[in-house]
């Protein structure tokens, strides 16, 4: 990130937790801010604290990204503000109950924020970044995106979507000088967990990361040029092996005949 122009960072879900920490740390790196979240009171408090501590310009936009009119308002800002150089797609809705214990309406609302809103914000900002030949898009995924069988499968599926979209964006935009990153944290000590219906008290301390440590790791991963940053992964070679296994499937992903194991003789009648 240090090789790219500063400017304005638009951070969604910025009223608390990871989003507020991203905002603070980006301001300390020299970015002005546009903070987006549902709670104006919390946004105002965070903005005031960051502006006083850093001297940066901090604007707030109250928006519920699950509501179309609010989402369109943020899209218009991304399309029209030429100072924006980084989008942090952090806003998200969580769930921990298994599928059969979850309300489908709540799952649809989660998809609206985690998938639809994130996608539309990418679509809103990417053309401007390409036209200016610089910009950074950070998408908040989750370690559950590669382990959707743990906890709520719909939540894991939304984060798997974020990972897949990020991979596609990297292929499409990297040569246009656009930086792309997905962040895949595990359990993090923020209000998000309780808001999702869970309790950090039920988890072993050794698997729960402090939010500031997670954001510091994510920013370090961005500085190092990582496409996928797993803050708790000790050895990046493990991710590289995971990706190499995925790439090994590619030559055989589409052929004109079934694989030999499916060409079985008809069962005797």
How would you describe this protein?
Helix 1 runs parallel beside helix 2 (40-54), helix 1 (17-28) crosses helix 7 (211-223) and helix 4 (104-132) runs parallel beside helix 5 (153-173). The chain has one domain (8-262): NAD(P)-binding Rossmann-like Domain (Rossmann fold). The chain has 269 residues and is α/β, with parallel strands linked by helices. It is built from eight helices and nine strands. The relative contact order is 0.12. The protein is 45% helix and 16% strand. A seven-stranded parallel beta sheet has the order 3-2-1-4-5-6-9, sandwiched between helices. A two-stranded parallel ribbon has the order 7-8.
Topology:
Blueprint: E1 8-12, H1 17-28, E2 32-37, H2 40-54, E3 58-62, H3 68-80, E4 84-89, H4 104-132, E5 135-140, H5 153-173, E6 178-183, E7 187-189, H6 191-195, E8 208-210, H7 211-223, E9 228-229, H8 236-249
Concise account of the structure shown:
Helix content is 45%, strand content 16%.
CATH class: Alpha Beta
Secondary structural class: alpha/beta
Strands of the largest sheet, in order across it? 3-2-1-4-5-6-9
- Helicity level: 40-55%
* Named CATH topology: Rossmann fold
- Mean pLDDT across the residues is 91
- Report the principal-axis shape: globular
The poorly predicted ranges are none
């Amino acid at each position: 990130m240090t090789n790219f122009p500063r400017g304005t960072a638009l951070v969604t879900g910025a009223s608390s937790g990871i989003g507020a920490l991203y905002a603070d740390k980006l301001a300390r790196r020299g970015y002005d801010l546009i903070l987006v979240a549902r709670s104006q009171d919390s946004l105002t408090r965070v903005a005031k604290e960051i502006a006083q501590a850093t001297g940066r310009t901090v604007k707030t936009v109250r928006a519920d990204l699950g509501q179309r009119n609010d989402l369109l308002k943020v899209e218009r800002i991304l399309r029209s503000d030429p100072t924006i150089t980084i989008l942090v797609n952090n806003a998200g809705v969580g769930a921990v109950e298994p599928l059969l214990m979850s309300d489908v309406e709540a799952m649809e609302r989660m998809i609206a924020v985690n998938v639809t809103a994130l996608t539309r914000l990418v679509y809103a900002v990417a053309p401007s970044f390409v036209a200016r030949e610089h910009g950074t898009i950070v998408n908040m995924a989750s370690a559950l995106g590669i382990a959707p069988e743990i906890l709520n499968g719909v939540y894991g599926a939304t984060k798997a979507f974020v990972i897949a979209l990020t991979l596609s964006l990297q292929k499409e935009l990297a040569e246009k000088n656009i930086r792309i990153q997905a962040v895949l944290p595990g359990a993090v000590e923020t209000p998000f967990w309780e808001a999702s219906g869970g309790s950090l008290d039920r988890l072993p301390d050794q698997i729960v990361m402090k939010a500031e440590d997670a954001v510091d790791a994510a920013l370090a991963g961005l500085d190092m040029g990582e496409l996928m940053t797993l803050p708790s992964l000790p050895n990046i070679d493990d991710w590289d092996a995971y990706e190499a296994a995925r790439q090994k499937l590619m030559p055989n992903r589409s052929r004109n005949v079934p694989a030999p194991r499916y060409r079985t003789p008809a069962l005797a009648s």
